[in-house]
UniProtKB/TrEMBL annotation:
Catalytic reaction annotation: Hydrolysis of terminal, non-reducing beta-D-mannose residues in beta-D-mannosides
Annotated protein name in UniProt: Beta-mannosidase A
Example GO molecular function: beta-mannosidase activity
Residue intervals of the Mannosidase Ig/CBM-like domain: 762-865
Signal peptide residues on this chain, from the entry's feature table: 1-21
Species, as recorded: Penicillium olsonii
Database matches in SUPFAM superfamilies: (Trans)glycosidases, beta-Galactosidase/glucuronidase domain, Galactose-binding domain-like
Segments forming domain Beta-mannosidase-like galactose-binding: 32-223
Keyword set, alphabetical order: Carbohydrate metabolism, Glycoprotein, Glycosidase, Hydrolase, Polysaccharide degradation, Secreted, Signal
Localization terms from the record: Secreted
Length: 951
């Protein structure tokens, strides 16, 4: 049984393009073999797949995710694996030309057709098409395709060891490395995880390990394979499209003029040949109503190489606009383009798209903005359809080490969790893959913006010509493939290169710094930027995530974007770029004065353990201890030195950071049952993680109304690749950690947040709103002790304050110092702040106002020091409505946590919340997947902070 079988239906691209005189043979599915001659192994294979998955399905190996198999399975990565098809049936008798079409090969291959070598490949991210007409003509009998996949760690090491690989640039105008500079990079610059030299190869960079994942370095035909034959001289098989919808005159780095009409530019990549003067017709259909928005012939039709393109105009206000979730609806349109010649349809292709502009504004702060109280420097925020908004979300990493088993059903659950979590943007981090269309489709439907990156991260990259040519092909293919998705928000060249790699190079290899900056600009600015601009006018580009913006853009200059780097950033009171901030010294975790002040926060976080239920999927019962060797060695922060199963040094540092953080702030679990104690420890690390992110998110959101005009927070990281301690808010199988619930709460449109400076005692309470107009309301303040009794005279605090909070703004509703609050005991007190406000959601300004509520609490002591009392929680279930009711009978319940058993995936409508004594909350559990036949309901439990230490 193939566990990833369900995927295959979803993975086939939206309908094989229909065309005249073509024979398309689908080579996907069963009927392949995978073999290693060196190891004398042959097992049944399938496509799309990877060798690990087929070996697992055949029972040759255990679950790759079990125990320490990450380290044990290096032998798979160190060998070649050959995929061979069964004899191909259904070939046409009168074909003129035949091709093999590979939508993705991971990574180094030698391909044979009917025993004849036809090609080699070396890039996981490219689509390849090969003319096999001659090989087919020479073939006796039914042909087979065989693809020999090389060992990526071995090939990467060979390239790195080749003295010419770095400096073999043929371009004599480029500075060469000094003769004393080794072919390797200057020491200490490249981010190395489990396997070295990933930067030399165009493969998912985290396949060689990362600080949250394993290093399997899988290989295989990871995307669909077809054999295409044309039976006429003139035929076109569509292999890709570049559909671009933008406002007339729009250019990537300049704010689009919303009054301009839309330009629809449709470009189609094909194999085959077209007549010189084909015509293109287009139909744009509103998917919801079925109404045709436009149906006509395209203008300016041109065939250039293997692409045909044309253009049309749509009136400025004719289409309905697509908005991110929380800001409006997501109307989608089918754009169907048909290539016609001599009155016949040669080929037709449909893409689902939408009308919106999305723009990354990095322009200088204007005098008018300064007059509004915005600090000088440069903007760094997104604008959708011309509107500023607050970006709320997280960073998405590969959801599995093996993409062919990532099912559409699982990704639906993930994207539903994103929307349920009040997130409107994900950063598609740059050492994964270019996401498949079905994931952009899910984001298009749900209004989730995807800041997308090219696959370069935490390293410096080669710039020899073959490498650049390879990258160029990858960039053009993916920019065109993805561009029609309205969820696409941005292209970034890479991750942490400008903000981390170059500064490290400056420090560690000052003599090479200038050369390395030149290399960086050569790849990310001179090469990639023009390729992006040539293929899309609708999407902004920046060379690397986390930057200080640019000084100027001159598309005719050899380096068309002049980066600001550190120019000006030492000027007090000036703000430029976005921020990327980690601090594993948990003693300052809640010290918001230490958080970075910038225009946007694109990464921040701290790791935590997954739940007991998730650990049980991957490790044996005897390993369920916080510091068992298996658990520790699955912690890859700091990077695993694997496959050494005796080196605990790096992993232990990460375990110690979690341990210390818990011990500093939370009651220390002390349960008799060792598994229960382990579970309580895992939970405690999640409480710390969630509280710390909450503290940072509140700080960044408040910044929307501060001089820095902060307009985004995307935390690290949305979800897990496997079962391990990581920064994730959602565990491998979809279970929410405390973090995802807490982020959901604090990403609501209007929030009330206490800010406590524990050194000075200053306490202020802010209301922050990301609505687009002013909201009005009040906040109530209620001090009680932990048994729930009101503190006399409300400890001198006003019981209510009314406020109005402006659009994308914040307002302070209360400001005091703990010393002025009359508390009998700081360890036995909690302040409950409750907000009620009236306002309009974006694009609902003409509808009735919405009532917003938000509750938060503050204790003037850390949880471990609180005089907790047993809240005597009671849980009941209403069988009819599948809701669970929790009641705190006798004391304040902090971090009230409903837990559910393994076998079901879903989420409660709220979790990790406070309950006052006598207070009841009824909560629905949203089931996303149930393998228990409904029995999970009997396994739901409730606990709170009080229970962490009880036996
Ligand atoms: C290869 O494996 C087959 C089947 O397991 C076995 O019969 C054969 O002897 C093996 N050959 C070598 C060279 O080990
Ligand atoms: C392994 O695969 C690579 C890439 O196809 C190829 O260059 C190499 O010759 C192969 N080696 C063997 C022993 O098959
Ligand atoms: C939009 O196009 C898709 C793919 O071709 C098709 O399945 C769907 O039915 C179309 N929708 C409408 C409303 O025509
Ligand atoms: C933005 O301001 C910088 C000074 O920080 C200046 O050098 C640059 O030319 C300005 N850019 C534009 C496009 O005006
Ligand atoms: C300032 O910007 C220029 C042009 O991008 C760059 O060459 C220089 O290194 C920058 N200076 C600093 C201190 O970053």
């Amino acid at each position: 049984m193939h566990p990833w079988k369900q995927l295959l239906l979803g993975a086939i691209p939206s309908g094989l393009p229909t065309a005249l005189g073509q024979n398309v043979i689908d080579l996907n599915g069963d009927g392949w073999t995978v073999s290693s001659s060196a190891l004398n192994i042959t097992v049944p294979g399938r496509v799309p797949s990877q060798a690990h998955l087929d070996l697992f399905a055949a029972g040759v190996i255990d679950d790759p995710y079990h125990g320490l198999n990450d380290f044990n399975f290096r032998w798979i990565a160190n060998n070649n694996w050959t995929y061979t098809s069964k004899p191909i049936q259904g070939l046409s008798n009168d074909s003129k030309t035949s091709w093999l079409v590979f939508n993705g090969l991971d990574t180094f291959t030698t391909i044979q057709f009917c025993g004849e070598e036809i090609a080699t490949t070396d890039n996981q991210f490219r689509q390849y098409t090969f003319d096999i007409s001659d090989a087919l003509k020479n073939c006796k009998g039914s042909p087979t395709v065989s693809i020999n996949f090389g060992s990526c760690p071995k090939i990467a090491n060979e390239i790195a060891a080749d003295p010419n690989s770095q400096s073999k640039s043929n371009d004599s105008s480029r500075p060469r490395k000094k003769s004393n500079s080794p072919p390797e990079w200057p020491a200490g610059i490249q981010g190395v995880f489990e396997l070295p030299n990933r930067e030399y190869i165009r493969k998912e960079q985290s396949d060689f390990g990362w600080d949250w994942g394993p290093a399997f370095s899988p290989v295989g035909p990871w995307q669909n394979v077809y054999l295409v034959q044309s039976e006429t001289e003139r035929s076109a098989y569509v292999v890709n499209t570049g559909f671009d919808i933008y406002r007339k005159g729009q250019i990537n780095h300049i704010a689009p003029d919303q009054s301009q009409p839309w330009i629809v530019n449709a470009s189609i990549d094909f194999i085959g040949s077209l007549p010189e003067q084909p015509s293109l017709s287009i139909e744009i259909k509103d998917i919801q109503s079925g109404d045709i928005l436009k149906s006509e012939s395209l203008d300016n039709v041109a065939v250039v190489g293997q692409a045909v393109s044309g253009q049309m105009t749509v009136d400025a206000d004719a289409p309905r606009l697509w908005w991110p979730t929380g800001m409006g609806s997501q109307p989608l349109y089918n754009v169907t383009v048909t290539i016609r010649s001599d009155g016949q349809d040669v080929a037709t292709v449909t893409k689902r798209t939408a009308f919106r502009t999305i723009f990354l504004n990095q322009s200088n702060i204007t005098e008018a903005q300064i007059a509004q109280g915005i600090a000088p420097g440069a903007n760094w925020h997104f604008e959708v359809n011309g509107r500023e908004f607050y970006a709320k979300g997280s960073n998405i990493i590969p959801p599995d080490a093996f993409w062919p088993r990532v099912t559409e059903a699982k990704m639906k659950r993930l994207f539903d969790a994103v929307v349920a979590g009040n997130q409107n943007m994900l950063r598609v981090w740059s050492s994964s893959i270019y996401l498949p269309d079905f994931m952009y489709d899910l984001a298009d439907e749900r209004g989730v913006l995807l800041w997308s990156e090219f696959q370069f991260s935490d390293a410096l990259y080669p710039t020899d010509q073959p490498f650049l040519d390879n990258v160029a092909a990858e960039v053009v293919y993916n920019v065109r493939r993805v561009n029609h998705h309205p969820s696409l928000a941005l292209w970034a060249g890479g991750n942490e290169i400008e903000s981390l790699e170059l500064p490290t190079a400056k420090k560690k290899a000052p003599e090479h710094y200038e050369f390395l900056v030149g290399d960086y600009e050569h790849l990310f600015i001179s090469l990639i930027l023009p390729l992006v601009y040539e293929n899309t006018r609708s999407i902004s580009y920046m060379p690397s995530s986390t930057n200080n913006g640019y000084l100027k853009v001159d598309l005719s200059a050899p380096v068309p974007m002049v980066e600001r780097y550190d120019n000006g950033t030492d000027q007090e009171g000036y703000y430029y770029g976005d921020t990327d901030y980690y601090n594993y010294d948990s003693s300052v975790a809640f010290d918001f004065e230490g958080y970075p002040v910038g225009r946007f926060a694109n990464e921040f976080g701290y790791h935590s353990m997954p739940s007991l239920q998730t650990w049980q999927q991957a490790v044996d019962e005897e390993d369920l201890h916080f510091n068992s060797s298996t658990i520790v060695l699955r912690n890859h922060h700091y990077p695993a030195s694997g496959p050494d199963t005796h080196n605990y040094k790096n992993a232990s540092m990460g375990m110690a950071e979690m341990t210390l953080a818990v011990e500093r702030y939370y009651p220390i679990p002390n349960k008799d049952d060792s598994v229960a104690n382990f579970s309580a420890w895992c939970h405690a690390t999640q409480l710390f993680q969630a509280d710390m992110y909450k503290s940072e998110i509140q700080f960044y959101r408040r910044g929307s109304g501060m001089p820095e005009r902060q307009l985004g927070s995307l935390y690290w990281q949305l979800e897990d690749i496997w079962q391990a301690p990581t920064w994730a808010g959602i565990e491998y199988d979809g279970r929410w950690k405390v973090l995802h619930y807490t982020a959901r709460d604090i990403y609501q449109p209007i929030i009330v947040s206490p800010f406590w400076n524990s050194s000075t005692g200053d306490l202020s309470v802010y209301v922050t709103s990301d609505l687009w107009e002013t909201a009005h309301g009040n906040v109530t303040f209620k001090w009680t002790d932990l048994s729930g009794k009101a503190i006399p005279d409300n400890a001198g605090t006003p019981e209510t304050k009314s406020f109005s909070v402006g659009a994308l703004n914040t307002t302070c509703v209360y400001n005091t110092n703990i010393s002025k609050i009359t508390l009998p005991s700081v360890e036995d007190a909690v302040l409950i702040v409750q907000l009620t406000a009236e306002g309009h959601l974006p694009n609902k300004e003409h509808e009735a106002a919405t009532t917003f509520t938000h509750r938060n609490q503050f204790t003037p002591a850390y949880p471990k020091d609180l005089a907790l009392k047993d809240p005597q929680l009671q849980l009941s279930r209403d069988a009819e409505s599948s809701t669970f009711t929790v009641e705190a009978k006798s004391a304040v319940s902090l971090y009230t946590w409903l837990d559910y058993p393994a076998g079901v995936v879903g989420y409660f409508e709220d979790n990790s919340f406070m309950l006052a004594p006598g207070e009841k909350r009824s909560l629905t559990f949203f089931v996303q997947k149930d393998e228990t036949g409904g029995k999970w309901v009997d396994g739901v439990t409730v606990r709170s902070l009080w229970d962490q230490t009880t036996s």
